[in-house]
Design brief:
Layout lengths: L1 H17 L3 E5 L4 E4 L4 E8 L5 E6 L8 E5 L2 E6 L9 E8 L2 E12 L6 E3 L4 E2 L4 E10 L5 E7 L2 E7 L10 E9 L9 E8 L10 E7 L2 E13 L3 E3 L4 E10 L3 E7 L5 E5 L3 E4 L8 E9 L2 E12 L4 E5 L3 E5 L4 E8 L5 E6 L8 E5 L2 E6 L9 E8 L2 E12 L6 E4 L9 E10 L5 E7 L2 E7 L10 E9 L9 E8 L10 E7 L4 E11 L3 E3 L4 E10 L3 E7 L5 E5 L3 E4 L8 E9 L2 E12 L10 H30 L4 H8 L1
Parallel strand pairs: 2-8, 10-17, 18-24, 26-32, 41-47
Antiparallel strand pairs: 1-3, 3-6, 4-7, 5-6, 7-8, 9-11, 11-14, 12-13, 12-15, 15-16, 17-19, 19-22, 20-21, 20-23, 23-24, 25-27, 27-30, 28-31, 29-30, 31-32, 33-34, 34-37, 35-36, 35-38, 38-39, 40-42, 42-45, 43-44, 43-46, 46-47
Length: 646
């Protein structure tokens, strides 16, 4: 067989040498390359084992590129392409005394960016404006055409046919003057540039930019409406609404005129609402309608008068206080020079807090807040013969920690698992809602509707049992707890915890492959390979079973090799694939037999091998002889070889 293979190789060499020497160059057509890009020209020789390559331009200017030749191929890479690469390139390949040459033309162009539309701002109705369409960094610009359109109507077209004095990038522009109207608002101004080079793909030789027209009319007819009146009592509220005409609709800006004549900004909404007005809020308020075309103002004067004696309690009519924290209740009197304060609970239980009164204000501080502070508190203010009373309700809550997610064990595909979501130390529990979500979907929802009379910290728990699958791996298990208390503004009312699922597949299909056999002769070698399926990949462990049934650890490799085996190596070998999800095992019994005595015999196989070698050696000698003869002549012919033999 080796002799036949050598002969075939020699025949193939003869055939390859007979092929005509030629070269090809790719791309096979003129190259149109964008300036700044990378272009490679490839020259390939055929019919020659070790060609030599050279590159040059047709006018013998520098290549401006890197040449890399290997085997039958040579590549000229120009990176980046510039004006210096606009040549006809020639690739010359030499094979011994033979030479072949092919050429390819490289042309360059530049059309890198979309056109730019430039407009003076702002555009005002009735005032002429000049729009400029700029196409940057063009080459060759004598093939450029620009269209400027408004609302799909061509305003102007220009082709730049003047000759180019030098090779350079140039910014080309087209200008059009028109007079905007109200109807132009929102219409599209389009600049379209076309570089007429057929060798460039259609989508690359046309670029377009669109700009939406914004046409302005300066603001005018600005008006202000006031409700309920420009004369107010201290503590009252007023709403002022401003409107102004213009195109586009003017932005409304509210400000207040200060004593020094400067304006204090207040709002950017059309409606300005002022609440709890004080006497110092009296003054001149200014509404301005503003757009890019101009501004129009309207002033209104507000007068705030002193109000009668009033009492306010805070933070509000109802407040939520965290157990163990602190809360300050404030009672304020307005319209009274020397008020007198007193505090009590609505059911006349102890205050369990500290009162401090100074000037027009009194505070009741509850710290630390306990269950005994869950009351409605009343503040009574006496001013001369007048007496006013305001109340505030204190609701308690405890929601200190994020939920805790627990699973009943390792997640194993196909085995039910129970997930517990626990929210510790909650009060009031009847306001708690817990949701368990898997993969963004709600699995279970629970509201804890218990008696409101129970004042203690409780743990809310939600249990869900499901059967995980491998598709659950990577999904998020989220426990979302919400304490529904409207009084909680700044305090956290939502807490959540998340746990990424990782589903295991218990080890299975554990198997042992033995090579060459589980029945061996003493002194031989054996290789046992173990495999096991599971997720994560099971950990493999080799052991040998002792006579008492115990397992003797051997290795943690997948392959166990025994060399120069002895009879005492016989026995049962066990491979275990294990993970947190379980264990799978397989075993094999090795039987080791004693060696038989040496016998003298003549193998028939040895006879066949001897006969074959007696034929192969002369054949190899002939092939070597013919090959040497072919090398001396430069070629090899099977016919000539036969003749010489004769």
């Amino acid at each position: 067989m080796k002799g036949i293979s050598g002969a075939l190789t020699l025949l193939w060499m003869v055939f390859a040498a007979s092929q005509a020497f030629k070269i090809e160059i790719s791309p096979d057509s003129p190259v149109m390359a964008p300036i700044g890009a990378s272009v490679s020209l490839t020259c390939r020789a055929m019919g020659c084992e070790a060609p030599a390559f050279s590159w040059r331009t047709q006018i013998d200017s520098p290549l401006n590129g890197k040449v890399r030749s290997a085997g039958s191929m040579s590549t000229l890479t120009m990176d980046p392409v510039s004006f210096e690469n606009e040549h006809s390139y020639l690739c010359t390949a030499t094979c011994g005394a033979r030479k072949a040459e092919r050429g390819i033309e490289v042309q360059v162009y530049s059309f890198p960016k979309d056109p730019e539309i430039h407009l003076p701002a702002p555009l005002q109705v009735g005032q002429p404006v000049t729009a400029t369409c700029l196409v940057p960094d063009v080459y060759p610009f004598d093939r450029l055409e620009i269209d400027l359109l408004k609302d799909n109507r061509l305003l102007r077209n220009q082709e730049f046919l003047e000759p180019m004095e030098s090779k350079s990038l140039k910014n080309m522009s087209l200008e059009v003057t028109f007079t905007p109207t109200r109807e132009d608002m929102g219409k599209a101004l389009v600049c379209r540039a076309i570089l007429h080079i057929n060798e460039v793909d259609a989508e690359l030789r046309e670029k377009e930019t669109t700009k939406e027209l914004q046409v302005y009319v300066s603001p005018k007819n600005t008006t202000v409406s006031v409700s309920p009146s420009t004369r107010l009592q201290e503590g009252g509220s007023v709403t002022m609404t401003c409107a102004s005409e213009g195109l586009p609709a003017p932005q409304i800006l509210w400000s207040r005129k200060l004593d020094n004549g400067n304006l204090q900004p207040l709002s950017g909404n059309a409606t300005l609402t002022l609440i709890a007005m004080r006497m110092e809020d009296s003054g001149i308020y200014v509404c301005a309608g503003v757009n890019l075309a101009g501004e129009d103002r309207k002033e209104v004067e507000l007068l705030v008068q002193e109000k009668p004696f009033t009492v306010e309690i805070g933070p509000g009519p109802q407040v939520a206080a965290q157990l163990g924290g602190a809360v300050v209740l404030t009672c304020s009197a307005t319209g009274c020079e020397a008020p007198s304060f007193s505090w009590r609970t609505q059911i006349d239980s102890p205050l369990s807090g500290q009162v401090r009164s100074e000037g027009p204000r009194s505070t009741l501080t509850l710290s630390p807040v306990g269950f005994e502070n869950e009351h409605s508190y009343l503040c009574t203010v006496t001013c001369g013969r007048k007496k006013l009373e305001k109340g505030i309700k204190v609701d308690l809550y405890a929601f200190p920690r994020d939920p805790e997610i627990e699973t009943s064990g390792v997640l194993v595909s196909g085995s039910p698992v129970t997930v517990s979501c626990k929210v510790p130390e909650v009060y009031p529990l009847e306001r708690l809602e817990v949701q368990l979500l898997k993969g963004g979907r709600v699995v279970k929802n629970k509201n804890f509707l218990m008696g409101a009379d129970k004042k203690s910290l409780e743990t809310g728990s939600l249990d869900v049992t499901f059967v995980p699958t491998t598709e659950d791996t990577g999904e998020a298990l989220v426990c979302l707890a919400q304490l529904h208390m409207d009084e909680l503004d700044l305090e956290p009312t939502r807490r959540q915890s998340s746990h990424t699922l990782y589903v295991n597949i218990a080890p299975r299909n554990t198997s042992i492959q033995v090579s060459p056999s589980s029945i061996l002769e003493e002194g031989s070698s054996v290789t046992m390979t173990c495999s096991s399926d599971g997720l994560p990949a099971p950990r493999l462990r080799w052991s040998r079973q002792l006579k008492d049934g115990q397992l003797q650890f051997l290795s943690e490799n997948a392959t166990l090799t025994l060399t120069s085996t002895r009879r005492e190596d016989a026995g049962i070998y066990v491979c275990e694939g294990s993970s947190l999800a379980g264990i799978s095992r397989d075993e094999v019994e090795l039987i080791i037999q004693g060696r038989e005595g040496n016998k003298d015999y003549f193998s028939p196989g040895l006879l066949v091998l001897y006969c074959a070698s007696s034929l192969i050696i002369p054949a190899i000698g002939m092939i070597v002889y013919f090959a040497r003869k072919a090398n001396m002549k430069g070629s090899y012919s099977l016919v000539e070889a036969q003749k010489s033999k004769v």
